[in-house]
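Reopening this one. Same input as before:
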Amino acid sequence: MKIAVISDIHGNYPALASVIDDAVSNNVDKFIFLGDYIFDLPFSNEVARFLMKMENSYIIKGNKETHMTMLAEDNQENWTHNQFGGIYQTFRGLSPDVYDFLNGLDEDCYIKLSPSISIYAIHIPSFIFKSSLKINCSSSNYHKKMLEKPFTHEQFLSEFSDIVNSDECKAAIK
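Same output, byte for byte:
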C-alpha cells in the first residue's frame, strides 16, 4: 500500500494539484492531509474544495485552520494589521462551505491500515507548545541560527534528532 502524506499547502492550489497528479501517477492508494490548507497564498477556497472531493483520504486541521476559528470568535479589529492582515484578508474571502468544512475537521485521527498497523496523524502535537520543544522546533529559530552561524543539512538533522530523542519529547509522547 502506498500512502502520500501532505501538509502545509497554505493556499497553493497549483502545487497541490501537481503533487496529487504525481501521487496518482505513482499509484498512491491513500492520502493523509495534515493541515494548514489556507492562508499565505490566494487559493484557499480552491484548495479546500479540492480536498472536499478527495477520496481515500484522511484530512485533519492544522494551526492555520485553528487561527481561522480564533479569528471568527475574536474581535476582528485585532487581526487587520501587521502580519495578521493577510490572514484577515483570506478569512474574509473564505466561502461559507469552505469555512464549515475546515472548521469541522478533527485535530487528529487514528488510521487503521491492518489489524496490527495503525498511524496516528496530527499536524503538531500540543505538547510541543507547552514545552521548550516549541522553541527548538521553530523554523524561525532555525532561520536565525542559520543567519548567525550557517550549518549543513546534516547538522540540522543531527540537532533535530537530538530533540526528538530527548527525554522531554519521549515523556510527552507516551
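So the earlier flakiness isn't reproducible anymore. For the record, The first helix runs from residue 13 to 25.
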